[in-house]
Fold each of these.
Amino acid sequence: MINNNNIEIISVKDCLGKNIIIPSYQRPYKWGVRNITELLLDIKHAITEKRLYADFKYRIGTVIFHRDGNKLSIVDGQQRMISLTLLNCFLDEDFDNSIIKERFTDKITLNHIHQNYQCVKEWFSLRSNEEKSAFVNAMNDILEVVVIYVGKESEAFQLFDSQNTRGRALDPHDLLKAYHLREMHSDPYDMENAVTNWEAKNVAKIRELFGDYLFPIGNWSRGRKTWEFTDKDIDTFKGITHECQYTFARRTYKAMPCFQITEPFMAGNDFFEMVNHYLKLIKNIESELNYNPTLTDIRSCFMTRNCSIGMKHVRKLYKAVLLLYYDRFHILDPLSLNKLFMWSFMLRVELENLSYESVNKYAVGDGINNSLPIFSIISQARQHTEIGNLIIKVPERMDFKNCKEERTTLLELLKKMKQ
């Protein structure tokens, strides 16, 4: 049982100054250059906030220690503690702590320590001494750590498992929610409103929005294959901060946001507006497909639940390409809808064994007949008629072995649509 006497919130400087040891059961140090860069940017952002708000503090994470006599065995937080030690070693040549005295022998750990130190060195190479001093001061004045002390090793591991189980339960979109709320800290009313609206949403729909639509569409539109959306990919949706002075970022500064899947957006409230926008857009498309009398044949096949895995894959592909088309032109032209449907579902006609990897290759123009890079084509098209004018090849007959009835029915539908 953890009580308040075993928890304290202290500065990073005070935490690193404790008698910390890294026990042999700890895994290797695996933070990479990307993690270090994110840490540096987070600290830089915190320093900026401190200049605006005198009492500002930035909580950089949680560390769990097992008390072992006068030593503190680190149970959770090793990656961050080693990284902060490397940073302080560079910033202050007189810096010293118990972690520096550790004898690391693991090759993975040693390699990452070397690479990350070089990353820190290069990052500060073009920065002034004043900026370096600001980072040194931040360790004591701005950056805080939640420290949890446990007396028994068994309790330490139990708490560690609990912490990590909760961590794994966080979806990427939950991490994005926390990130963008932090960007809104100066607007408490908007923050409260964003949280209220977010909590009212269907979690499965949000997960589907990022996993089945926004993330794969973004990749396919850039001509690259996609993969499962995880917490490692959240940078894709962090948006542009108001401090960013890049030319491409300035085009995004608008009083009223106008979202496009393939274009950047502002960090903070615009993220929540974007999620609302695309959830509604998907709903509008599905409604149009259900009630447009000219799309009866499409609807009957598109909405079928009793179908093969391969058919389910191409239905997702069709919904994704349809969203990108509607996102760009905001019109559901029947001719273009037919072409997009034909392009998507011809993949099922062509392949007996259709996996997600088949969809992945097809979407970027790598594969069988009709394998056009259509996501890229749509994202660059100036008029919706360019999509309606695409040539989709539909054979007169094919020799089917697997899923014969499903594929035969689909081929006949596509031939009818092509007439």
Amino acid sequence: MDNVDARPGPPSGAQWTIGAAGHQAVVVEVGGGLRTYRADGFDYVDGYAEHELCVGSAGQILAPWPNRIRDGRYTFGGDTRQLHLSEPSRHTAIHGLTCWLPWQLVSKTADEVVLGCRLVPQPGYPWSLVLRTRWRVGAAGLQVTHQVTNASAEPAPFGIGAHPYLRLPATSVDETVVHLPAESRLLVDNRLLPIGAATLAGGEYDFGTPRQIGAMLLDTAFGELKRDTGGGSAVTLSTPDGSTSVTVWADPAFNWWQLFSGDTLAAPRHRRSVAVEPMTCPPDAFRSGRDLITLEPAQTWQASWGICPAIQDSGVGSHSGAGSH
């Protein structure tokens, strides 16, 4: 016990600050997630203070699955598994298993930090994964690269997502203009679990043409994404006059976006910002198999996403610059 540090510390553990070209981010030990991100003095990520516990999954990395699994129960490789119900009110297992694990520092420079975590086998998920995340800031914004290796002797089911909340200067959620080029959304039951899909084409959830959120309540997964020339996709939030925007981009490995307007969060976070969540697979993918990744033994998977703010005529960031890796 002499080697255990029993001194009080931040709920999110060690804090690592990186900065370059007017951009700064703080990444934390607990969950290996993003606590803050600012550019040119404005906090584009609605994170949490150093003395606070992470609320609403703010900035967390969601692995080995994003979103929910119905009843925490699924079958893979002929065996049925039962996960802990981490969202008991809806009888689901939500957002994976790494959100509250300690991540270790692998390397750090002024503008980049790399963290690693080993997910050990456990009831409901008897596979071992080695996860590594590289966080980097620069003139093009924040870039995040995930590497995940299956350290088990058997194939493992896998998915990943991220949960940043975004906001814009002097702009409410209702006033926020969203651009999300997609062709469909998932329909959900009262437990927010998928029961079908609907095409968007001109409907109330169609953000293919940028428009304000207004009074809409969003906790919605969007699929059949319209890709850019590199195969990636992006969601852009803008102020009503278009003077400021922030884009969350993701490479081709991410097939889904979840938008969450924060309506179920308690004050002061209630409807204060919009979670823009890149996901490799949709909710309940461990049961449906839709876009579920199977990691073979010793296989390493890698993908990137990022956040790119832009102020009109400022030259700060660009989607194409942020997405290069």
